[in-house]
From TrEMBL:
Chain ranges of the CRM domain: 1-96
NCBIfam families hit by this protein: RNA_bind_YhbY
Domain of life: Bacteria
Keywords noted in UniProt: RNA-binding
MF term (GO), any: RNA binding
One Pfam family from the record: CRS1_YhbY
Protein name, entry field: RNA-binding protein
């Protein structure tokens, strides 16, 4: 679990990122979760945007993505979800203690 200080640090780092994935009408599926897990391994911190036509609410989508990809949910702001997962091979982000 992330501490408050760590979440603030990650939110600041994520601020300038653009969403890589979009969740639309189809909602969350296994293929998407797998792709997100792969990208998290490479980048550690990503944004996912929830489109207007998505049938599930953003909090449900955030929960499904974070549990499916075994990632930490940093924040949900507007229709954007920020996810973090420490990379095994490619560690770039050093979290404050």
């Amino acid at each position: 679990m992330l501490k408050g200080k760590q979440k603030r640090f990650l939110r600041a780092k994520a601020h300038h990122l653009n969403p890589i994935f979009q969740v639309g009408k189809g909602g969350v599926n296994e293929n998407m979760v797998q792709q997100i897990a792969d990208v998290l391994e490479a980048r550690e911190l990503i944004k996912v945007s929830v489109l207007q036509n998505c049938e599930e609410d953003r909090d449900t989508v955030a929960e499904q993505l974070s549990s499916g990809a075994r990632a930490e949910l940093v924040q949900v702001i507007g229709n954007t979800i920020v996810l973090y997962k420490e990379s095994k091979e490619n560690k770039q982000i050093e979290l404050p203690r």
